[in-house]
TrEMBL record, chains A, B:
GO biological process: plant organ development
Protein's cellular compartments: Nucleus
Superkingdom of origin organism: Eukaryota
PANTHER family: WUSCHEL-RELATED HOMEOBOX 1-RELATED (PTHR45940), WUSCHEL-RELATED HOMEOBOX 3 (PTHR45940:SF42)
Protein name per Swiss-Prot or TrEMBL: WUSCHEL-related homeobox 3-like
Recorded family membership: Belongs to the WUS homeobox family.
Major subcellular site: nucleus
Any Pfam family hit: Homeodomain
Ranges where the Homeobox domain occurs: 2-67
Length: 231, 231
DNA sequence: GCAAATTAATGATTTATTCAAG
DNA sequence: CTTGAATAAATCATTAATTTGC
């Protein structure tokens, strides 16, 4: 819970629980649409903004990785891990990929069809020994470009709040009382921008996963001319 | 110039020139307001989005740093730099701080009043010797928190496009044909967001330097630590 | 000259690091 | 000590320079 004049977001237990479930369900780097959905869902349980969701996943992923790395290093020092890895070199893979098949449409790549090339090595870094495990993931084809979280930087953020629904299959959604879906308010877009986006779509349409055209338009209002008065 | 179906932004010569001038004028990490202003200005010379501006400054800063670092390393190997540093340990400071006093109101911290604590050291990193120079910049008081570019992530992005004016004193503005002033169109903002922003203002108003309260929200705290590591 | 092949620049993302609130 | 927030570094990916063989 966030204190009244708090400077930073403080997740409610409910929010935290849902976030964690989404994480264990396989969500790692939600895109703008997903973030918007998650945010509006979680906002029913307390104050929250999109950036909080973004940061949470970023931090959580990074720190889980750290924890695991630390743990592994310890285990390595204390024995046997090496054999474990040799017998099942993929068992770490879940770190960066969806854990549940239910979320393949969220992460936009299918681990089953990806080729893994595990590598492991030990080297020196600043005096202390470090163990690196690297998996080169060969993704079959170039997939949905819209994943980019950075898209939120642009003014496009505005447009990204429309549509989106696939979140409904999350375990946490069935566990909690399902809040009513909200309709999001869209801002007008210039004709030229729309045309441009359509071109992009034509270039990139590899996946026909999208349910309606608006969602695929995604979202960009280029600041065509955001008028500003400069003194 | 950007090819028709190009996947990435390609700055026009005009845009590039202006960006470089802004950089040499001292802009390093523009905040949301500044990015929005820059974007709408540069959009007169070609297609551009806020994120392009953001990325450009981030990349340019980082790569300038790299270039300088490399140059210095070379000089070090080839002679005398060490003495240079000892005689004027601050001469690297411009890397992350405003170059021109005209932009103190943009960066919101006055280098003149900052205390610098230069440090230099050599240590081992992964086998090869590394020299680090670090300047700890002691900022007099905790200043405006709103500097964060990350604010653009949140829905507050909307809020940030208002106000803002100080860009006019840039050299590049006087060099190019001055485009006609436009009136900014504002999007509706929810009451809660407004309230929030107001709270932030109330919490952080330490400096009375600003002419109006809204514009003062948008300033920059340059990093409290300007670390340089020489490979 | 002029493409195909390489290499260098640089736009865009991701990951690591750091700061600071609580 | 944990973790939200922010920045910097590393990395990926595409475009532009350039080299090369013809």
């Amino acid at each position: 819970m966030a204190p009244a004049g708090s400077s930073r977001w403080c997740p409610t237990p409910q929010q935290l629980k849902m976030l964690e479930e989404m994480y264990t369900s396989g969500i790692r780097t939600p895109n703008a649409n997903q973030i918007q959905q998650i945010t509006s869902q979680l906002s029913l349980y307390g104050k929250i903004e999109g950036k909080n969701v973004f940061y949470w996943f970023q931090n959580h992923k990074a720190r889980e990785r750290l924890r695991l790395r630390k743990k592994l290093t310890k285990q390595l020092q204390q024995q046997q891990l090496y054999h474990q890895l040799q017998h099942n070199p993929h068992f770490l893979h879940y770190l960066d990929s969806p854990a549940s098949p239910a979320f393949q449409h969220l992460s936009c790549y299918n681990p089953a069809s990806a080729n893994l090339f595990p590598q492991a090595g030990i080297h020196d870094e600043g005096g202390k020994q470090v163990t690196n495990y690297t998996w080169n993931i060969d993704i079959p084809e170039k997939m949905d470009k819209n994943k980019a979280i950075m898209r939120m930087y642009g003014s496009d953020w505005l447009m990204m709040v429309d549509v989106g629904l696939p979140l409904s299959s999350l375990p946490c959604y069935s566990m909690i009382s399902r809040p009513p879906l909200k309709t999001l308010e869209l801002f007008p877009v210039t004709a030229s921008n729309l045309k441009e986006e359509c071109n992009n779509i034509n270039n990139n349409n590899s996946n026909s996963n999208s349910s309606n055209s608006l969602s695929s338009v995604s979202c960009n209002i280029t600041p065509a001319k955001v008028p500003l008065s400069l003194p």
